[in-house]
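Thread: Newbie trying to understand structure tokens

Hi all, I'm a second-year student working on a class project, and my supervisor (Dr. K.) asked me to get a predicted structure for one chain before our next meeting. I've only ever worked with sequences, so writing a 3D structure as a token string is new to me. If someone could post the tokens and maybe explain what I'm looking at, I'd be very grateful. Here's the chain:
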Amino acid sequence: MAGSSMTLCTDKLFKVLVIGDLGVGKSSIILRYVNKCFDERYKASIGVDFALKTIEWDTKTVVRLQLWDIAGQERFKKVSRVYYKGAMGAVVVFDITNSSTLEAATEWKQDLDSKVCLDGGRLVPAVLLANKCDMTGRDRDLVSSLDCFCKDNSFMGWFETSAKDNINIDEAGAFLVKQMMLCDTSLFDEEHHWDGIKVSQDPGESQSQSLCCWGPRAKSQTTAATG
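---
Reply by user tm_fold:
Sure, no problem. This is what the structure looks like when written as tokens:
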């Protein structure tokens, strides 16, 4: 049509692993992130489940996330290389009321880093989720140690989350997508990898409060980017 212009849209597909020990809430996080709901009935994943989320990242970019929900049982680590292949990002989840699941998160992250990497040998960007922050028994000493934990284990950032109360789920997702986009477009700046101080939002604070995260500083995306 005369006088009209064609708008080109970039469509990106990212495979994202969701890993962590049994019962930390991986499936509930995915259900909240993708379907905006929470199911009290717990059913452990067997093998791997899949979910797809589409995000209008900006006016010219659509991001499609293929979320791989990897079962937390120990026996599935033996075949994790098959599941990890082609991953562009990862979410490692632990239960903030159970410190042993944080220790397990270290093992999951090491397993990830040993079996998959990006072009050039760079680590797959990963975010740590301290899930179930709505529950009593939240260990504040453990929370205060997470900045150092993330730096020591090469996480891009961390968030306190609650799938039940929808705390920081979209925020964590948007943060990880931003890191994957930076890697995908070769804009990732290694020298600024650890130039920030992560201040996780307290569950009692307003969810509209801005978050400061580990990783490259960038302008906030539009609200559509938070899904």
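A couple of things are worth pointing out once you decode it. The mean pLDDT is 80. The chain is about 25% helix and 20% strand. Feel free to ask follow-ups in this thread.
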